[in-house]
Amino acid sequence: MKSLKICYRLFYLIKSCQVSGWKQRAAFLIVGGDRKQASTMVVTHRFTLLLLVALIGIFSSFSQVRATSDINVRIESFSSTFATDLATLQTQIGYKFTNINLIRRAMTHGSFSQENNKALSIFGTHIIETSVSLQLLAKDIDISSKALTRFIAEVSNVSSSCALDGNRLGLERIIRVSPKTDASNSAIVCAGFRAIFGAIATDAGKVDEAIKVFVKVHGDGYGRFVSVLYI
């Protein structure tokens, strides 16, 4: 931009100097009777100005193309890294998305885009609670409602469970957030973790797949928490 401004200033400077100079010379030639030479001078002056304008236009276009190219390179680099991270994440959880846009959305925070993971996170929360309930009832059909509620709350806890699971998957390095937002924030990691299961259920058209993945990702946490609940 600075170079472009300099060119424009130079153009106006040359133009002003040329206008005053050639007008004086042309007037002198006309008074002297040499109208042909005066006419040639006018044509030459106009050609010089047009050539200068053309050169400035070419330089301006080149600068814009170069700037656009630099921006595109940065965007492509960012997109490429994000795509690689999503591929790695799918390998980690053992589920390959048919609709890749769902996992992209699951890994997008509200601060980054209006197309974010809020709805998928809410859906994922219910899937996790359903998964926990199924696992506990399968182990003990006589479990009390109080114990079931406590266990669900423990597994759904942002800091002690949800965010820890998300950190094990490295979600703080994958979730897209605005420049001023901390992606390692527990609430953001937890929301992304929950959104994964909402995305899986939506992609598969049923919650069964999402429950299977949650059981796999959460690991043997069930047994650990069950033992705590019954102490």
UniProtKB/TrEMBL annotation:
<dbReference type="GO" id="GO:0004525">
    <property type="term" value="F:ribonuclease III activity"/>
</dbReference>
<keyword id="KW-1133">Transmembrane helix</keyword>
<protein>
    <submittedName>
        <fullName>Ribonuclease 3</fullName>
    </submittedName>
</protein>
<dbReference type="InterPro" id="IPR036389">
    <property type="entry name" value="RNase_III_sf"/>
</dbReference>
<feature type="domain" description="RNase III">
    <location>
        <begin position="86"/>
        <end position="205"/>
    </location>
</feature>
<feature type="transmembrane region" description="Helical">
    <location>
        <begin position="43"/>
        <end position="62"/>
    </location>
</feature>
<dbReference type="GO" id="GO:0006396">
    <property type="term" value="P:RNA processing"/>
</dbReference>
<keyword id="KW-0812">Transmembrane</keyword>
<dbReference type="Pfam" id="PF14622">
    <property type="entry name" value="Ribonucleas_3_3"/>
</dbReference>
<dbReference type="InterPro" id="IPR000999">
    <property type="entry name" value="RNase_III_dom"/>
</dbReference>
<keyword id="KW-0472">Membrane</keyword>
